[in-house]
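JOB MANIFEST
job_type = single_chain_structure
chain_count = 1
residues = 268
[input]
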Amino acid sequence: MKNKLISLVIVISVAVLVAWSLLNRNMPFGQHETNPSVYDTKEPNNGTNTNALTTIAVNNNKETHTEISGIELRRCRNIPKTKDALDTFLDQAHANGESFQYIEDVLNRFELCKQYPDTKQNYIQLLINDANKGSIASLNEIWKIPEAEYFEIMGFDSQSREDIIFNRKEFVITKYRLAHKLATSGNEEAILKLVKSYQHYDPLSQKPNHAKSLAYANFGLHMTQDNDYYLKLDWFKQRILGNSSPEEVESAFSITEQLLIEADRGGN
């Protein structure tokens, strides 16, 4: 009887060992001993899958090298920089009865601007660079910048009267130059901007220039294939013609020819 009992124990033990061996053989590699959810939170050893950490490292690397937008950097200019500053703003905003939309916009910008710690960076130069590359959004942003902001960001704090006049003129010339570059590249928004602007001011002559305004209108009418845009430009053209002398009209046609030649060369 004793011998039969011992034999039965041996048979059961062997059966358990065989079953355990077969179970481990059928399980996927890497799941024999460890709960995957716990394993993923540990620092990987040699041979461990490092895709998650590699992705984080790659993402961090992208964040480090992400090109900062001049538009976003400008919009971060007056946003609170710290949580305490944000709380103070919220208290004042609620006390002053500011609209929900305004407060929500600041909150959204606060989250966005965390990635731009250096909001004192020269975003105007960034905008100029982007406009030079063909960004109409950057061009429009430049045209919104007032003179005082331009002087501050460019570091023109203490200047003589002559320097102020010179830098003011250079800024305006830069805006027109960038608009011209986009216009001769075929950007209809830039063309219309110059048609409107030259009616009131030419930075070179420092007075209205109907000839140039009319020239850009003629140029846009020649370039566009958009019917609505054509009608809008033609309305401006007729209005300008009513205020132009025969000499200005003749000059406009000459300038238009130059613009068309420049456009054929790629706007360069």
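[summary]
Residues 70-121 form one domain.
The chain is about 70% helix and 0% strand.
exit_status = 0
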